[in-house]
Specification:
7 helices, 5-stranded mixed beta barrel, 9 strands, Rossmann fold, about 30% helix
């Protein structure tokens, strides 16, 4: 397939080698307007906003990826395979699973468990374990230390369902396996990166926890700046 693609109107060269990807396109707009120098919008298709600018002299792009693995699967595939992007860093929101994970904690997903059938599209002879790029993960941990931002590194869970009739039982199983938090995109991102021979990392901020008041849409858009700063340091 040539560019532009059905979902991204950018021309070759419009997108940097490293792309930060929040689920919410308005969070992409917030990052571009508040952290990047001279940001230029390269995509508005379906309001999935994408921008390229510079951060501390380094060229970087930021673009929304929407909700769920099918959406992340489309955008990350096109970026890796048609726009020659080398690194995608998801910066998303997440729900706490472990009781000691607190609201607004920053979690770096070393691995991504999943209940999705996304891996079946690759016709593998077994069960694939989606994992982050060690290069990006180690750099993120070091960047967090330099910024004085505490992070936790571990397993996360990428689910296909947001509203679940047996949510408590569902989470208890992952809790027993030490999974830190739940989200909906990392596994697809890690699988697409593996197939393309590229690098990917998922970093999330805890926005919801059972029994506590969840963050608002505006808070998720504009206040998860610690995670944004760590991700920008990887560009």
């Amino acid at each position: 397939m040539s560019t532009p693609t059905p979902h991204i109107t950018a021309s070759p060269g419009d997108i940097a080698k490293t792309v930060l990807m929040p689920g919410d396109p308005l969070r992409a707009k917030f990052i571009a307007e508040n952290f990047l120098d001279n940001p230029v919008c390269f995509n508005e298709v379906r309001n999935m906003l994408g921008y390229t600018g510079t951060y501390k002299g380094k060229r970087v792009s930021v673009m929304g990826h929407g909700m769920g693995m099918p959406s992340m699967g489309i955008y990350s595939y096109e970026l890796f395979n048609f726009y020659d992007v080398d690194n995608i860093i998801r910066i998303g929101s997440s729900g706490a699973i472990q009781p000691d994970v607190k609201m607004r904690d920053i979690i770096i997903g070393m691995g991504a468990c999943t209940d999705s059938n996304y891996a079946k599209s690759f016709n593998l002879p077994g069960t694939f374990a989606p994992i982050a790029s060690y290069e990006l993960l180690s750099k993120a941990v070091e960047a967090a230390k330099e910024l004085g931002l505490p992070v936790r590194v571990g397993n996360i869970m990428s689910g296909d369902v947001f509203y679940c009739d047996n949510a408590k039982e569902h989470d208890e199983g992952w809790l027993k396996m030490g999974v830190l938090a739940s989200e909906m995109e990392a596994a697809a991102l890690y699988m697409n990166a593996a197939r393309a021979g590229k690098h990917a990392l998922c970093m999330v901020t805890i926005s919801d926890k059972p029994g506590e008041k969840p963050t608002t849409a505006a808070e998720r858009e504009q206040t998860f700046t610690g995670m944004m700063q760590i991700a920008l340091a990887l560009a």
